[in-house]
Design a protein that fits this description.
The chain is an alpha/beta fold. Helix content is 38%, strand content 15%. It has eleven helices and 14 strands. It has a six-stranded parallel beta sheet, sandwiched between helices. It has a four-stranded parallel beta sheet with strand order 9-8-10-11, with helices on both faces. Strands 1-2 form a two-stranded antiparallel ribbon. It is globular, with a radius of gyration of 21 Å.
């Protein structure tokens, strides 16, 4: 479905024209209006929190690219408070923002403020998290979130030799924040790989916290992706279900912030790096987690190069402000309950101890000193 690929040179060439340009909006079906309206490049960026490293990087990198291109940019962080994010978006609209880039805290609560944006003829790009229940979401830019979960599930499948019939192994699955639309895709991708092995008895969940199907994922969700809540939950499972020498063999953690809490719990329970240490998955390639991977305390992380996501959104903004058709590569998957939102999906990839240097350090995503190399 990929329509075209923008080269780095093309992006650079287009960047200089952003300061004064034209805008088009998609209709409910994602089509582009025939007429373009001249407007300034005035962008509001609404990020959910500074408590996770990735959101700081995402917001500041996109802000810099836009500012360097001559755009007016208002970047706000909402401390994971929905009312605060709504207020910040309202202020951005009042300040004349013609493009809103929103990484929603709760994607189901923004309908009224997006009605305000529509009234001001602002274009809305959902950033990494889908905004639900509103026809006024024009585009969605994200990674293939189902693929993220698939990569985690396949990693576990391969490492344990499940496809060859090995087992049983003790599994503890976790899911992300129930108010994050992406969390259901992460879990579904992994659970579609792992649940057949649960059903066969090759994977056993001593805590009983094994959702009956993909749709029940929120029953094991960790609110706010909070590390301390994941640690507390893992503490409870270990103390309640792992006496008499029983050990955890594998933990499905959907992201790095949960993994850090899970790893702290395991450490407190006496688990140490080595052959008997559990397989633990993650996502985001946060510095602390990459160091944990190098130290043998985490098995992998799914790397989503957020620089590429920022580049894609930057390109979308260029296309919008210049009155061009906005490139998408998925017009089927992401139904927000009111419309299928035209989307651009980027590809995530697995990073293990063997890949840290080549994928993360050599690419400039992290510095060697960030992870003790």
């Amino acid at each position: 479905m990929l329509k075209k690929i923008m080269t780095g040179a093309a992006i650079a060439a287009l960047a200089v024209s952003l300061a004064a340009c034209s805008s088009t909006k998609s209709g409910d079906t994602g089509s582009t209006d025939a007429a373009a309206t001249t407007t300034d490049c005035n962008v509001g960026i609404a990020m959910p929190t500074r408590s996770l490293e990735r959101w700081i990087n995402d917001g500041e990198q996109l802000q810099k690219k836009l500012t360097d291109a001559g755009c007016k940019v208002d970047l706000q962080y909402a401390d994971n408070k929905t009312d605060q994010q709504i207020s910040q978006i309202q202020n951005q609209i009042a300040g004349g923002a013609k493009i809103l880039v929103i990484a929603a805290i709760d994607g189901s609560t923004l309908g009224p403020v997006l009605d305000e944006a529509k009234a001001q003829n602002a274009t809305v790009i959902a950033y990494d998290r889908l905004i639900n229940g509103s026809k006024n979401v024009d585009y969605y830019a994200t990674f293939d979130n189902y693929k993220v979960g698939q990569l985690q599930g396949k990693f576990i499948e391969d490492k344990l030799g499940l496809a060859s019939g090995k087992g049983p192994f003790n599994l503890e699955p976790f899911a992300g924040s129930p108010d994050d639309n992406n969390a259901k895709f992460f879990f579904a991708g992994a659970w579609d790989v792992l649940k057949p092995y649960v059903d066969k008895g090759q994977l056993v969940v001593p805590s009983g916290k094994a959702p009956a199907n993909d749709d029940a994922w929120a029953s094991i969700g960790i609110q706010g992706w909070a590390s301390d809540k994941a640690q507390s939950e893992m503490d409870n499972r270990l103390s309640s279900f792992y006496g008499d020498g029983k050990k955890v063999n594998v933990v499905l953690s959907p992201n790095d912030s949960l993994a850090i809490g899970i790893e702290a719990s395991l450490k407190s329970a006496g688990y140490t790096a080595g052959d008997a240490y559990p397989i633990i998955t993650g996502q985001d390639a946060d510095k602390a987690n990459v160091k944990a991977i190098l130290d043998g305390l985490q098995s992998m992380t799914v790397w989503k190069d957020t620089r590429a996501l920022g580049d894609r959104v930057f390109t979308m903004i260029q296309e919008i402000t210049q009155g061009k058709e906005v490139e998408v590569n998925d017009s089927e998957t992401y139904n927000n309950g009111v419309k299928v939102v035209p989307s651009y999906l980027l590809t995530p990839e697995v990073v293990t101890k063997d890949d840290v240097q080549t994928k993360l350090i050599d690419s400039g995503f992290l510095k060697a000193s960030d992870v003790g190399l």
